[in-house]
Specification:
Blueprint lengths: L2 E3 L1 H4 L10 H5 L5 E4 L2 E4 L9 H5 L5 E3 L1
Antiparallel strand pairs: 1-4, 2-3
Amino acid sequence: MPVTIDTEKCGKIQNCPGEGLCIKICEKGALVEEDGDVVLVPENCDDCDLCIQNCPNQAISKV
């Protein structure tokens, strides 16, 4: 099951203390930057949960 991103908690990458850490650690390319936002590419998500564990804003979770 792919993750979901709470855009209110996430904010823009420029406001992220991890500077888009979730995108950097996703080996499958399931999280990408689009106009400064983190966007999920669900078909690439392999449920590894690395993004959930490493999001400094706790903005990523399972549905």
